[in-house]
């Protein structure tokens, strides 16, 4: 497994394919494998796909102290091998936006999936705070809460709860949720110059689709797409999200 040095320690990432770079950033409680392993084969014919694990996920350790977007964006930027396209999902969308704003020389095209600009309403705050509380105190309820807010009702009914309940919260999840609650990228957005696609999910109960629409509105010139999916569109609609990514990065 390739690694990249960073001030916080060693950053682990996966690399597959050939061609120009495509860096894909995972979301809260996920990692490179759980979020993207099933999507990577659909992209490696056109891109060298880099999927990093940031602090507290996969094999990348958490250095302690404050977990910040600065830290995670720095870790992700360290894995770039050349100027690349950049995809971010959920918390990864905020991380990707920060990289694009502060390291524009690295980012050719940007895709932000199921993202948000800041803690704009009480529903978003309630959902994230409940998720954090369950992660800290009640692993069984945490495992049940994930499918309830992460997927659409139809998908849960089709797949079944046993296949979706994660059990113990993955390492780093609680600190990442606490960072979700502090995310505010409004000042960064005007600095993003890369062509950008924002993707919202109409059945998203964790980050309601209105937040993706607001993110798009705050990025003049960005393109926007919606999928009929819950929050974890990477698993619920893998073919559709792969097609959107491929179409956009191909220009």
Automatic annotation (TrEMBL):
Is Hydrolase among this UniProt entry's keywords?
Answer: yes
Which keywords does this chain's UniProt record carry? Answer: Hydrolase
Instruction: Give the GO cellular component terms, alphabetically.
Output: membrane
Taxonomically, the superkingdom here is Bacteria
The record's section on Pfam families has: Abhydrolase_6
Give the InterPro entries listed for this entry: AB_hydrolase_1, AB_hydrolase_fold, AB_hydrolase_sf
Under the GO molecular function aspect, what terms does this record hold?
hydrolase activity
Is Hydrolase one of the keywords UniProt gives this record?
A: yes
In this protein, which residues make up the domain named AB hydrolase-1?
A: 22-242
List, alphabetically, the PANTHER family matched.
HYDROLASE, PUTATIVE (AFU_ORTHOLOGUE AFUA_2G14860)-RELATED (PTHR43798:SF33), MONOACYLGLYCEROL LIPASE (PTHR43798)
Kindly provide the name given to this protein in its UniProt entry.
Alpha/beta hydrolase
For this protein's source organism, the top of the classification is:
Bacteria, Bacillati, Actinomycetota, Actinomycetes, Streptosporangiales
């Amino acid at each position: 497994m390739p690694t990249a040095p960073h001030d916080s320690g060693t950053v682990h990432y996966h690399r597959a394919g050939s061609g120009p770079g495509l860096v894909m950033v995972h979301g809260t409680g996920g990692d490179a494998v759980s979020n993207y392993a099933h999507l990577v084969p659909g992209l490696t014919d056109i891109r060298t796909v880099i999927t990093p694990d940031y602090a507290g996920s996969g094999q990348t350790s958490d250095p302690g102290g404050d977990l910040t977007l600065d830290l995670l964006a720095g870790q992700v930027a360290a894995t770039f091998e050349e100027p690349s396209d950049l995809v971010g999902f959920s918390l990864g969308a905020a991380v990707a936006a920060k990289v694009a704003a502060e390291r524009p020389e690295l980012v050719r095209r940007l895709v932000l999936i199921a993202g948000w600009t800041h803690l704009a309403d009480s529903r978003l705050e309630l959902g994230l705070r409940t998720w954090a509380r369950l992660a800290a105190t009640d692993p069984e309820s945490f495992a049940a809460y994930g499918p309830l807010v992460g997927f659409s009702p139809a998908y849960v009914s089709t797949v079944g709860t046993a296949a979706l309940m994660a059990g113990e919260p993955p390492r780093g999840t609680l600190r990442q949720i606490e960072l979700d609650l502090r995310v505010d990228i409004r000042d960064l957005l005007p600095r993003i110059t890369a062509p950008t696609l924002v993707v919202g999910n109409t059945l998203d109960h964790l980050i309601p689709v209105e937040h993706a629409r607001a993110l798009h509105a705050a990025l003049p010139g960005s393109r926007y797409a919606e999928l009929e999916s819950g929050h974890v569109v990477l698993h619920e609609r893998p073919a559709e999200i792969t097609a959107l990514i491929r179409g956009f990065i191909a220009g």
